[in-house]
């Protein structure tokens, strides 16, 4: 069983989403309008008699209001040269399918490489007709740009979809055929999901003229479905897309479910009276076929959940084209199928075509979207425009009812029985290709309170953070964070994790992360359990120390701060890994926990080994009895050493950490540190005391406990239980040691000697940072400080001041809400182009109840705002001249045709007696002859079309007119007659701007016959017409008209009544 997880559309009436379609249906509006002038000048193709060559009998239809050539090609990674050669059907289909994916919660990242099929219904090839007017202009992109076959392939290529990819053309049933083939592919597991789409854009007049000639267009170009006035259909634009999956897979993956597709079926009418003649039997058969496939009883369609015999009301969405013959036949087919079960409640039927017109290959998708939304809303919109029912639709006899006003979805007539709302959708191709689909409401097929959430990550990004209980105030545009133009860098830079050391800790650090993210708290609990299993376990809880109030906190006591800081760093590393934030390089700083955290993040040591190492470090340091102190000083290393020497403090104060070119940390005897601090302050040098619990790390003070520490961690590294030796899968992460200033591998960090050296020796943090970015390099990195506070940001920036661009963020900050700092970190990483697992970031797991709240999907969010910078369009001049010609065909002159220049002009006419019957009254003997006056008329009409409109008030003057050969018209068929107008030559190098030369000739196969030629010009003088009047002294003899015609007949001129 398949289900639809998302739908999207662009439809007439300004509809750009399913919710806007629903608004249009609710309000009883339609998308009826005149053919947009940008498509073609419909006035120049109009004639009330559609049999006239090159004309149609309608000026209106149902059209998209947007510029169909507009396209944000860069969004899809398509260059301008290729985009300009792409059919707007490809362009707009890409946009609509992307919107469909967004509504499905399918991100671009999740789509790439997925086994998703593409099935596109298409009927029109107007763009190919436009571009093929001049094959000399074809480019390397023309074949793929205008070929209908590529519609589905374009989707597969742009979105990197690896399932089946094909286009189906069965005319009006194309998109429902696509749905059938896609559902079959899902059943056969040929793909894991499928895009089903239909696209129909009217861009050129050719197909418009052809459908008019076939007699299937309404004279008013409306779809008057079911009405007595139905005389054809109104053509329409339309683009629609569905995203479907197997129902079980959708529920497993947490996809939105809009409706369930119980079954689809297709068939053909076979041999009928004519290939375009509909068949009641064929339509009935396809409906029965679909219900048999679904295992649903035709006579009790809604008996899915109950065996009780009910009289139910059924709902059917008709194909409803709006033809006098087709509508009654479709309704009769429905009555044959469902009639027996509707002895009381009539079958409800309706059609969306009265609102949207007939979008041909896309019409089935429009019906599916309407029906799905109606199932969701529990309402059936009205079929508008029905005034008088077609008498051939025997509504009472067939027990059917047209829904002419909004109607609640039918309910079972037995109140204690719950039935699943169900609807059927018909679609029939004019060549006899029938299709039928059965839809059901989703609610009966998914768990209660079912929901999901996903979204694509686009190049231009923003984020906001807010409390889940304050979304009304938080969800505002002004709260959005964007990347500034100055600091913007949207390329994914490699992550460098910098681990802060002793002195950055503070009470309550990480507390909010424990409360929000279960995994963070679970990591802390796991580390506590590791310590509890030691021979000499701690007498404190890591969790408890974190939650202590500031006034009673023990966080600055070495025995507590070492393991607690390391635990927070391990938990941060694991949490960021859940969010898809993984380092490429790690650098640790200072007294143990920084390097221990870095070794864990690099995969050198396990979480067990890291926390036990930190615990024993704190345990042994707490036994140092000598009072010490540490201070950060804003001096370069050599300047600091000179200051120590000047103060005669060598052997008591040491450079413990070289942080940057402008910063060191001094360590040693407490009294000596006081002296240095006072001297530095007197010189105006920056100083800051570190919270080290009276311990002088990285100084000889540590030598007294160095052996004990080494022995304890030797046992840890050698005797750790096998189940606790598992390291993070991060062996490809580079670790730069601040002990050696060089890259170090696990063979170096997994020795007790390394960690004793780390405790007793100076920290070369500056060297480590310089090792990351050599002096000549301009590499860029995203630095993230892992620890209680971004204490190392300034040293890193000072060290890399002359190098490439860098970005620095921190997971926590002193005194700030840990959840807020973490979310802002993630948001800023997202702005800079990184891929983030937002389902993990925004998933809320309540620590006390251990219950997980899944974010609910917001369906039908506003679509992405497409950015149309320029209009990408090109076409041959001959096509543009044809589409936007200014004048309709003239009975004699015909219509102007493109000739590649704007100096001369040519008109072409298929002159026939059928279209100019008055000509058969002008005969020479038994032959119908084109009158000589017709040549003059054609020349005048051609001249007026080219001349200034004011010329209509002037006099036309002929010169040198020659009738060269009689044009005999056949009694049947037509003659190709051409009229050419060009400026008259004054000399070999000069042409006239007032006088034109005309020539009229016919073409039959390879023979060309010149019939008339001459000169024509405008005579501005108003007196010229007086020359044609008889003079007063002329003697005119009255003649009977009959006598005149008798004389004509004697000479062989047989004039009929119309001459």
Automatic annotation (TrEMBL):
Region annotation (C-terminal hotdog fold) ranges: 1036-1059
MF (Gene Ontology): 3-oxoacyl-[acyl-carrier-protein] synthase activity; fatty acid synthase activity
Ketosynthase family 3 (KS3) domain segment(s): 1-441
GO biological-process terms attached to the record: fatty acid biosynthetic process; secondary metabolite biosynthetic process
InterPro entries assigned to the protein according to its UniProt record, in alphabetical order: Ac_transferase_dom_sf, Acyl_transferase_dom, Acyl_Trfase/lysoPLipase, Ketoacyl_synth_AS, Ketoacyl_synth_C, Ketoacyl_synth_N, Malonyl_transacylase_ACP-bd, PKS_assoc
Record keywords: Phosphopantetheine, Phosphoprotein, Transferase
Coiled coil: none
Keyword Cell membrane included in the entry's annotation: no
Pfam families per the UniProt record, alphabetical: Acyl_transf_1, KAsynt_C_assoc, ketoacyl-synt, Ketoacyl-synt_C, PKS_DH_N
Residue span(s) of domain PKS/mFAS DH: 890-1059
Signal peptide as annotated in the record: none
Region (N-terminal hotdog fold): 890-1023
Name listed for the protein in its UniProt record: Polyketide synthase
């Amino acid at each position: 069983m398949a289900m639809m997880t998302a739908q999207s559309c662009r439809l007439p009436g300004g509809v750009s989403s399913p919710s806007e379609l629903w608004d249009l249906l609710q309000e009883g509006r339609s998308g009826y309008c005149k053919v947009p002038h940008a498509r073609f000048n419909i006035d120049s193709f109009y004639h009330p008699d559609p049999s006239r060559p090159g004309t149609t009998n309608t000026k209106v239809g149902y059209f998209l209001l947007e510029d169909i050539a507009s396209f944000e090609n860069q969004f899809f990674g398509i260059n301008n040269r290729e985009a300009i050669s792409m059919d707007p059907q490809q362009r707009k289909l890409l946009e609509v399918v992307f919107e469909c994916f967004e509504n499905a919660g399918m991100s671009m990242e999740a789509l790439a490489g997925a086994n998703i099929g593409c099935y596109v219904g298409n009927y029109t090839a107007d763009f190919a007709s436009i571009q093929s007017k001049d094959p000399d202009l074809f480019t390397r992109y023309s074949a793929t740009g205008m070929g209908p076959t590529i519609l589905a392939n374009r989707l597969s290529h742009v979105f990197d979809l690896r399932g089946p990819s094909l286009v189906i053309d069965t005319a009006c049933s194309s998109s429902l055929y696509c749905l059938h083939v896609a559902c079959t592919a899902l059943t056969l597991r040929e793909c894991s999901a499928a895009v089903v789409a239909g696209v129909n854009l009217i861009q050129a007049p050719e197909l418009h003229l052809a459908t008019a000639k076939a007699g299937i267009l309404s004279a008013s170009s409306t779809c008057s479905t079911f009405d007595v006035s139905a005389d054809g259909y109104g053509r329409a634009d339309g683009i629609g897309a569905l995203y479907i999956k197997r129902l079980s897979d959708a529920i497993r993956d947490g996809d939105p479910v809009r409706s369930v597709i119980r079954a689809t079926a297709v068939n053909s009418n076979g041999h009928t009276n004519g290939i375009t003649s509909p068949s009641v039997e064929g339509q009935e058969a396809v409906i029965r076929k679909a219900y048999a496939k679904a295992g649903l009883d035709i006579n009790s369609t809604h008996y899915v959940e109950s065996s009780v015999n009910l009289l139910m009301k059924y709902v059917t969405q008709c194909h409803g084209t709006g033809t006098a013959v087709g509508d009654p036949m479709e309704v009769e087919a429905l009555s044959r199928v469902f009639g027996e079960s509707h002895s009381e409640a009539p079958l409800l039927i309706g059609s969306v075509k009265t609102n949207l017109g007939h979008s041909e290959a896309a019409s089935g998708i429009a019906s599916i979207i309407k029906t799905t939304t109606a199932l969701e809303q529990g309402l059936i919109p009205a079929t508008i425009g029905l005034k008088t029912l077609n008498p051939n639709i025997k509504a009472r006899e067939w027990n059917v009812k047209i829904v002419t006003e909004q109607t609640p979805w039918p309910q079972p007539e037995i109140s204690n029985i719950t039935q699943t709302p169900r609807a059927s959708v018909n679609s029939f191709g004019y060549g006899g290709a029938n299709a039928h689909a059965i839809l059901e409401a989703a609610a009966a097929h998914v768990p209660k309170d079912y929901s999901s959430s996903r979204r694509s990550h686009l190049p231009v990004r923003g984020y906001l953070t807010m409390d889940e209980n304050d979304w009304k105030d938080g969800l505002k545009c002004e709260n959005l964070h964007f990347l500034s133009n100055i600091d913007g860098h949207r390329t994914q830079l490699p992550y460098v994790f910098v681990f802060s050391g002793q002195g950055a800790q503070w009470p309550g650090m990480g507390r909010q992360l424990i409360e929000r993210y279960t995994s963070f708290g679970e990591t802390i609990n796991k580390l506590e359990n590791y310590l509890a299993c030691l021979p000499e376990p701690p007498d404190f809880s890591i969790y408890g120390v974190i939650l202590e109030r500031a006034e009673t906190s023990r966080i600055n006591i070495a025995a507590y701060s070492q393991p607690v800081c390391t635990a927070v760093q391990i938990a941060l590393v694991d949490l960021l890994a859940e969010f898809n934030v993984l380092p490429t390089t790690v650098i640790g700083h200072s007294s143990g926990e920084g390097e221990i955290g870095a070794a864990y993040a690099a995969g050198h040591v396990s979480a067990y080994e890291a926390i036990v190492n930190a615990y024993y470090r704190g345990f042994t340091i707490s036994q140092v009895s000598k009072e010490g102190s540490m201070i950060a000083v804003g001096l370069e290393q050599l300047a600091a050493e000179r200051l120590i020497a000047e103060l005669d403090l060598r052997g008591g104060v040491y450079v413990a950490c070289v942080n940057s070119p402008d910063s060191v940390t001094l360590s040693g005897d407490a009294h000596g540190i006081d002296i240095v601090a006072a001297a530095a302050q007197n010189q105006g040098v920056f100083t800051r005391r570190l919270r080290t619990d009276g311990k002088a790390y990285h100084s000889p003070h540590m030598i007294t406990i160095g052996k004990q520490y080494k022995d304890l961690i030797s046992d840890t590294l050698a005797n750790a239980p096998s189940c606790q030796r598992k390291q993070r899968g991060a062996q490809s992460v580079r670790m730069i040691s601040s002990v050696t200033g060089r890259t170090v591998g696990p063979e170096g960090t997994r020795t007790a000697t390394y960690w004793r050296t780390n405790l007793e020796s100076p920290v070369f943090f500056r060297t480590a940072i310089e090792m990351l970015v050599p002096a000549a390099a301009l590499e860029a990195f995203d630095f993230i400080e892992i620890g209680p506070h971004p204490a190392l940001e300034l040293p890193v920036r000072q060290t890399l001041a002359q190098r490439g661009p860098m970005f620095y963020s921190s997971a926590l900050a002193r005194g700030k809400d840990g959840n807020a700092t973490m979310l802002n970190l993630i948001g800023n990483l997202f702005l800079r182009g990184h891929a983030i697992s937002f389902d993990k970031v925004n998933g809320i797991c309540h620590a006390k109840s251990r219950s997980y709240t899944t974010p609910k999907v917001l369906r039908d969010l506003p679509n992405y705002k497409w950015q149309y910078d320029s209009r990408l369009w090109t076409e041959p001049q001959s096509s543009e001249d044809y589409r936007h010609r200014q004048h309709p065909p003239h009975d004699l002159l015909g219509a102007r045709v493109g000739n590649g220049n704007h100096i001369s002009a040519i008109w072409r006419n298929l002159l026939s007696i059928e279209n100019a019957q008055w000509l058969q009254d002008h005969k020479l003997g038994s032959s119908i002859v084109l009158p000589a006056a017709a040549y003059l008329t054609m020349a005048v009409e051609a001249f007026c079309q080219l001349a200034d409109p004011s010329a209509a008030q002037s006099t036309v003057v002929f010169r040198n007119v020659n009738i060269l050969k009689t044009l005999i018209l056949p009694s049947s068929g037509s003659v190709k007659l051409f009229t050419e107008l060009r400026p008259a030559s004054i000399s070999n190098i000069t042409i006239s701007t007032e006088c034109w030369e005309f020539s009229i000739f016919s073409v039959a196969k390879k023979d060309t016959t010149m019939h008339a030629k001459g000169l024509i010009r405008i005579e501005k003088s108003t007196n010229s017409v007086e020359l044609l009047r008889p003079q007063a002294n002329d003697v005119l003899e009255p003649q009977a008209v009959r006598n005149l015609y008798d004389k004509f007949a004697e000479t062989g001129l047989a004039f009929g009544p119309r001459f």
